[in-house]
Structures are given as C-alpha cells and as structure tokens.
Amino acid sequence: MRLRMNDERERRLEALLEASGENTKSKAIDSAAKYYVRMSGALARFRPERWRN
To answer: Pairing with 15, which of 24, 25, 36, 51 sits 20 to 30 Å away (CA)?
Structure first.
C-alpha cells in the first residue's frame, strides 16, 4: 500500500512511531489499528489471542 504523505501526515506518523515505540511505520500503523479495533468493541467478533502483542 502506498500513502501520499503531506506535511501533516508525516508529523502525525512520526508522533505515532514515537508513541507506539515501534521501529517501522508499518508496525506503528498495525499497532494503532489493533488498538482502535479493540477500543471500538469490534474485538468481540475475533479471538482475543489473535490480538495479543
């Protein structure tokens, strides 16, 4: 997947990398997506062991 990066997105992604403690952009995005799904309550549809870090 390719993302068009503007200045705002680049700053947001850098903040996400720092906040998540991940070393790569893809891992930081995966971590944020997992967190979002967990917090939205959609986790009940999935097995919890698939979401452990």
So the answer is: 51
Whole-prediction pTM: 0.68
- For residue 53, give every residue at least 6 positions away whose Cβ sits within 8 Å of its Cβ, in sequence order, or none: 31, 34
CA 30 to chain centre: 4
Provide CB contacts within 8 A for 5, sequence distance 6+. 13
CB 28 within 8 A of CB 16: yes
Condensed to tens digits (0 to 9), the pLDDT of residues 9-34 reads 999 999 999 999 999 999 999 999 98
Where exactly are the structural domains of the chain?
Answer: 7-51
**What is the rounded distance in angstroms from the CA atom of residue 4 to the CA atom of residue 1?**
10
